[in-house]
Specification:
The chain is mostly beta strands and 118 residues long. Helices cover 0% and strands 54% of the residues.
Length: 118
Amino acid sequence: QVQLVESGGGLVQPGGSLRLSCAASGSIRSINAMAWYRQAPEKQRELVASITSGGSTNYADSVKGRFTISRDNAKNTVYLQMNSLKPEDTGVYYCYMRIGIPISYSYWGQGTQVTVSS
C-alpha cells in the first residue's frame, strides 16, 4: 500500500514563504508524474504545479515566478517552494503522484492547510 504524507503548511504573512514536502512510502517501483493541487474555500480543486519524471515542470499562471516545484527521486519526495505569498494562495494543498509500472495508479496526500493573512 502506498501512502503520501505532506508537511510544511501553516500561517504566513503576505509576502512570506513556505516550503511544502510530500513523501511517498510503501511499495513503490516507479513514480511518474508528481504535482501539487490546492482547494480554496467554496472553490474547486485546481492544479498549482506539476513535474514529470524527466523534470519538466508546469505551473498555473497565478503562481508562475513565485512557486517552484522540485522532486527528489531517491527520497520519493516532491517539494513546493512558495515565495511572495498572497492571501489568494490560501487553501488546502494536496500532493498527487502517479505511481507504478507498467500500470500506474493515482495517489493523493491528506492535504495541508496554507493560510496567508496579516
